[in-house]
Amino acid sequence: xxxxxxxxxxxxxxxxxxxxxxxxxxxxxxxxxxxxxxxxxxxxxxxxxxxxxxxxxxxxxxxxxxxxxxxxxxxxxxxxxxxxxxxxxxxxxxxxxxxxxxxxxxxxxxxxxxxxxxxxxxxxxxxxxxxxxxxxxxxxxxxxxxxxxxxxxxxxxxxxxxxxxxxxxxxxxxxxxxxxxxxxxxxxxxxxxxxxxxxxxxxxxxxxxxxxxxxxxxxxxxxxxxxxxxxxxxxxxxxxxxxxxxxxxxxxxxxxxxxxxxxxxxxxxxxxxxxxxxxxxxxxxxxxxxxxxxxxxxxxxxxxxx
Length: 306
Hints:
The chain is mostly helical.
């Protein structure tokens, strides 16, 4: 292994792994190896991987310096840098770079720098972060009409996020409803979260019903709806949803192994534990101790109702 010299493919894969893991120190070690191996640093795929790992590891300035130093750029180079700016909410930089990308394509007529669907994810994400609603709509239409690209779930998700951030929840709901097929629960949960901020009970109820069809076992959506009811003072509906949650979700359970006593299991709302009385006596003494030391106050009955 002492004479082993990684080629550009090996290093590119290693850098991609560093980007996914956010391993900046490992990236620096790999880059040092690259510098000492002649001819390797000139590979465009490898440089693209470096831009990607710089950006994902938080060093956007280093990514941009490397990007600006490159004479040759392909669609991956441009996309990696646009995505890097978008990832760190540098919307203006990302959108300005996208404009330069289109200009570079116009002057060079090169098929190597035609924006692809990944490019538009970065563009739409930037519009969302900057609350540029009309510009985001323009780019969404452009990717279909000018570039013949079919939107995927990430594009729809960016558009929903863009509209929700602008407090256009109803428009976001209509947008999702007109999508060919949307089975991505993340998109619907973005809408549900926006309904919570907006206090839109009617839409929240519809969206939660849709989520129950997609992921019936996910009780978090019902919790979100109950919170929407609470913000509007609809306590009866909130309690009704909470009761549904209790029926659908198994009670919380903890277990502990005590030396010589085997394993004891504790289940929420369990009144049948053989040591229930002893457990609550210990709990009461702990509460008294905490109250005396820290001024902490807790009613045991609250725990019994959990």
